[in-house]
Specification:
about 290 residues, alpha/beta, five-stranded parallel β-sheet, two-stranded antiparallel ribbon, 11 helices, about 55% helix, globular, disordered N terminus
Length: about 290
């Protein structure tokens, strides 16, 4: 027959599992059941409190996210309504996602998105003397001569629509290009450098295709065309071959240190090897802090 001490020891483990131990018939041990009941209630109360704490933590975290999102939205509205045009530059290796982020920022803040590459390609397509010089260099993956690039970019920035603010995509890329912009009085408030590993860049670039009708950029793996009709007319840009992109990466690494040094006071480096939305959320915070 179990002793009273052994029975009490078994019942104290009620918070882990139920132990069914019969009390001896000659010793009812008054008060033992009530003590076990109280212990069980304490365990239940603690579990309930822990549950409430976890729920409160989740609610607090959610509230913080909502508050941060609202604060960011208010900050962005303040940027839009400030009356002072924003001047931004986003640089990085080819395929680092510059164009994607510039487009999102442009759409959300009403800035004019100017892609240096597009400006040069448009000039090349138009067959202008400067455009043809640019095309020869781009096809080889080399930097376009500074006098050509600065002239074309400067002309675009001087157009009326840029008076409300602009975001320059992928320019400058060298000391001479920086000096050309600076001499023209073109100074950004913030420069964002997107960092992406080379192997990721190569994979992104060689899979890119462009719709010659809409100008939209697709990727055969990550962003395929919506239908077979579009797929059938896609073309690969002459500067998106593997040979060209590896040359462009070499040129990028040779010059990125110059850009870092030239814009050190306004430069922000961002990890570009992430989801597009995650990158944009970081850029939003940087933009809000810019005029805080």
């Amino acid at each position: 027959m179990a002793s009273p001490a052994r029975i009490a020891s078994a019942y104290t483990d009620v918070h882990v599992k139920r132990v069914h131990t019969a009390a001896p018939s000659h010793a009812p041990h008054k008060g033992l059941a009530s003590r076990v009941h109280v212990a069980g209630k304490r365990v239940q109360l603690q579990a309930s409190q822990n549950g409430r704490t976890r729920r409160m933590s989740k609610r607090t975290a959610f509230a913080k996210k909502v508050f941060a999102a609202q604060a960011t939205e208010q900050g962005l509205r303040g940027l839009i309504n400030s009356g002072e045009p924003l001047r931004l530059i986003v640089v990085g290796a080819p395929g680092s996602g510059k164009g994607t982020q510039c487009k999102i920022i442009s759409d959300n803040l009403g800035l004019v998105h100017i892609s240096a590459g597009d400006v040069l390609r448009e000039a090349a397509a138009a067959g202008t003397p400067m455009g043809l010089r640019a095309k020869e260099c781009m096809d080889r993956g080399e930097l376009v001569p500074t006098d050509v690039a600065v002239t074309l970019v400067k002309e675009r920035l001087e157009q009326d629509d840029c008076k409300a603010g602009w975001i320059l995509d992928g320019y400058p890329r060298s000391q001479s290009q920086y000096e050309g912009l600076s001499a023209a009085g073109i100074e950004p408030e913030m420069v964002v450098l997107l960092d992406v590993p080379d192997d990721v860049i190569v994979d992104r670039v060689i899979g890119r295709r462009q719709d010659p009708i809409s100008g939209k950029i697709y990727h055969l793996t990550y962003s395929p065309p919506e239908n077979e009709e579009i797929a059938g007319r896609l073309v690969q840009r002459s500067d998106d071959t593997e040979e060209a992109v590896r040359t462009r990466l070499r040129v990028h690494h040779e010059n990125v240190g110059i850009v870092r040094a030239a814009y050190k006071d306004v430069l922000k480096e961002v990890d570009g090897n992430r989801d597009t939305l995650q990158i944009y959320k970081d850029l939003e915070l940087l933009l809000v802090a810019l005029r805080a």
